[in-house]
Amino acid sequence: MSHCDHLVDVGRRKFLSGAGLAAAGAAAATMVPVHAKAAPGSARVDYPSNRLANIGELKPNEAFNVAYPDADAPGVLLKLGKRVPGGAGPDGDIVGFSTICPHKGFPLNYNGVDKTLNCPGHYSRFDCESGGQQVWGHATQNLPQYMLRIDGKGDIYAEGVDELLYGRLSNVL
Ligand code: FES
Question: Domain Rieske: where (predicted)?
Answer without folding.
Answer: 64-157
